[in-house]
Amino acid sequence: MPVLKVLAFDDSGAGTSRATPLHPPLFRTSLLSTLCADLQAVPGVQVVTPAPDGGRTLFAQRLLAGIRAADAVWPLLPPAGGLLESAARLVLRRRRMLLGSSPAALHITASRRRTAAALLQAGVPALPVHAPDDPLALDLPLVVKPDDGAGSAAARLFRDGASARGWLAAHGQGKEVLQPFCPGRAASLCLLCRAGTVRILSRNALRVAMHDNQFHCLGCMVNGLAGEEPELDRLAAAVAAALPGLWGYVELDVILGAQGPVVFDIHARLMPSYAGLRASLGCNPAALVLGLLDDVERIPAELGRRAVSVDHGAFGMG
């Protein structure tokens, strides 16, 4: 059996010769370790990782060396600053298999404004996203968050537009956007996507708390959501059709509101929910992603649905 060499890498030292990661250290270590363990359990797969060198070599140089040594590349990079999109383009330029979404899809999902615009234009239920100077109904609660998809702790709730804009005037970094607050239950969907089609791996209940008007995602119950399957299945299918460049593992953040589920974020990369998938499904999620490389569908007709708790604190998030 031929060996498939897969490079899995994160953002350690990204953008500099020193370690200035954009993800918390636990996030990187835990997710990369989980993915590598899953990949190593797939027959015929050899995991390649960039050799640590104490920060002596530029991140881009180490990444390029890893790509040269691999047949396929699975990046675990944040979207901020176009880092994930740029890495995907580099992989394709080097004629390696990209185990992730297309650069065009990554360009859209790296921005909450672009994501919302693409979904709403396609008729997908999604929360609109506005620039701070857009005309808005200022008497409604608003959420201020970065446009580049940082963690939930960077999202703040304000009782009205005046309060939100006042905070932005004093503390804004020029990269924030506004989103209407939607009451409801927070949830996420772990998906397998390919060419506009989708398979739902898990429907997850999120545990979200608020302190000092900031949201904190404490964790999730993978496959802990029941009773919403038909609506969530239709929503996932609509997202995949609207963004056919989504490929492999994708996670949707949704609100289960009074009018049905609406999308408020798309992550075209691994998130902490992934860590609970193998125990929940009873099979290897990395093997399912690699199976998308084949022309023949290799996903089992029935997957496990065991509820598994994942603590985001183990990933330095919250």
Automatic annotation (TrEMBL):
SUPFAM superfamilies to which the protein is assigned, alphabetical: Glutathione synthetase ATP-binding domain-like
InterPro entries assigned: ATP-grasp, ATP-grasp_PylC-type
Claim: Nucleotide-binding is one of the keywords in the record: yes
- What UniProt keywords are attached to this protein's entry? ATP-binding, Nucleotide-binding
Query: Which residues belong to any copy of the ATP-grasp domain?
Result: 113-294
Stored Pfam families: ATP-grasp_3
Q: List the molecular function annotations (GO) for this entry.
A: ATP binding; metal ion binding
Name under which the protein is recorded: ATP-grasp domain-containing protein
Task: Tell me which species this is from.
Answer: Pseudoduganella lurida
